[in-house]
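[SOLVED] Need 3D model of a two-part complex

Original post:
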Amino acid sequence: MTSDSAQQLEISTVPQNDLAVDCHLQVRLKTEGERLLLILPPEAAMPGAASWFDLWQQLKHRLNAGERFWQANSTVHLMAQDRLLDGQKLQAIADALLEVQLQLQRVYTTRRQTAVAAAAAGYSVEQQPPTYSLNQTPSEPAQLLAEPLYLQITVRSGIEIRHPGTIVILGDLNPGGEVVAAGDIFVWGRLRGVAHAGADGNRNCRIMALQMEPTQLRIADAVARAPETPPSQFYPEVAYVTPGGIRIARATDFSKTHLLLNS
Amino acid sequence: MSRIIVITSGKGGVGKTTVTANLGMAIARLGRRVALVDADFGLRNLDLLLGLENRVVYTAVDVLAGQCRLEQALVKDKRQEGVVLLPAAQSRTKEVVSPDQMKKLVGALAEKYEYVVIDSPAGIEMGFQNAIAAAKEALIVTTPEIAAVRDADRVVGLLEAQGIKRIHLIVNRLKPAMVQADQMMSVQDVQEILAIPLIGVIPDDERVIVSSNRGEPLVLAEHVSLPGIAVNNIARRLQGENIPFLDLMAEHDNLLNRIRRLFRS
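Solution:
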């Protein structure tokens, strides 16, 4: 990844349906007007093992990583969907939000028990019919990408970030960590873990990093490993798909050859 | 305000318990009152390393079951004033204690002791959750090995999610000669991945094994060895003192080694 402007990485193509990743399976935070929507993934989408504990951890990481962007004392509307939340869990969510000075105000749910618990805890509650969903359901093809997700975080081993749009990481992506985006992935730091751009199948997506030393790169259905011998010097680089597989170019060269020609 | 510090690593065998035992003694030598808590239920070792095994009567489980008072379970150390140990039960498993119970125990200790140091078990399951439940800060112990660093990274992520933001790094068992020969990760390599502040580097030393086997913490020795000095420095840095790091490389940077390196490269 040094002298050549573009370099072939080892490549293997995996059947599409093995790699088609659903990016909707995580806790999401979305600004809507002056309020913030906290959207929990539906229970059906995270069965069994993906427990309340995982959910709570995702929430904490998201809140820590985006802390700078919310105005203090903004109100939060919780989209609990079909999640069963008792008073204790609601309290845990409210506490986590309060740590970054956000106020839980309203709870939307399709479950009666969650509605009762939320009402008992003093939040305004809106119980929706079970069919109603704010998200596109996973089976529906995602037409438009979600707004980019910007996170100031070190993506450590065991942390997995999924988002149905572009992801920007201000920090390192460590080995053992994974970032999966329906759009592009920018890592303003070292990329040492696994990055999967265009996870819905878009081969035009790209992965960019200040220092590219990935465990594995994936774009749509293409997979590539980094060369066995790491380069002696690092430059900001861009990974993209060609008919021959995933290639990596120095960012400065990439903008000359790919971005200007296309315009 | 007393400080509640959990010592953890993710991977086993990197020296959590050894560090806990020595660090506890080192803090006490600075005149602080220290309670050491063994949170490794079912596989307790801390009492062994402290040489207090034969003085354990009650354990944390007995306290929780109401079979004794907390004071009765605490084992005092005769060699060093100010240190007590709350032993774990050996016969039970990690599921007998809940995070809430752990918080209660540690909270009671924090009322009487300036430092509560919790020795966490390896892994990230129930035992680990118990150990970190009450902690306000954490010391991550890792060796300069890729697996240990990977696990440490995972643990840092879990601690951050738990809201424990004050996290420091101890690199244990460093072999300066191997680092210089480029055969071992350097402290910088480890730090580059973990991205948390360093509080100490402990060199690999056979005397550590000897002291562990005898149950005599290094820092209590008459002539404190290099790893003992490293631990003493960690204790002082914990207190906020600004102590320069030991130059572990110096001894190995002699002319002969330089010539060797020249020929190798």
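Edit: Chain A touches chain B at residues 56-57, 60-61, 64, 99, 154, 156-159, 171-172, 174-176, 190, 192 (CB under 8 Å).
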